[in-house]
Amino acid sequence: MAAIKVFLSGGPGHFPEEHRVQVIDSLESSYKCQFGAGYEHFRHAGDYVSVEGERLPVLLWHTRTFIAE
C-alpha cells in the first residue's frame, strides 16, 4: 500500500484545520476520519490543491455517520 498525503475539504465548520492534511492508503475508496461522536467521510473527485508547496489530492466531504454504542 502506498502512503498518499491528501487535503480534506468541507465537513463541519468546526473541523480543525490541523486535521485537514492526512495520509491515506488509496484514492479509490472513501476515507473516514473520526471526529467527535462520529465519522466524517471524504472521497476524491479528481481535484488537487497546493499546500505548503506540495500538490495534494483534495478529498471532498460527502457524509457523516455516528459511532454505534
The total of beta strands comes to: 5
Indicate the overall shape. globular
Strand content: over 45%
Which spans of ≥5 residues are poorly predicted at pLDDT below 50?
A: none
Description:
The protein has 69 residues and is an all-beta fold. The protein has one domain (4-66). The chain has no helices and five strands. It has strands at residues 4-9, 21-24, 31-35, 38-51, 54-66. The protein has a five-stranded mixed sheet with strand order 2-1-5-4-3, with no helix packed on it.
Question: Can you lay out the helices and strands and say which pair or pack?
Answer:
Elements: E1 4-9, E2 21-24, E3 31-35, E4 38-51, E5 54-66
Parallel strand pairs: 1-5
Antiparallel strand pairs: 1-2, 3-4, 4-5
How would you summarize this macromolecular structure in one to three sentences?
With 69 residues, the protein is mostly beta strands. It is 0% helix and 61% strand.
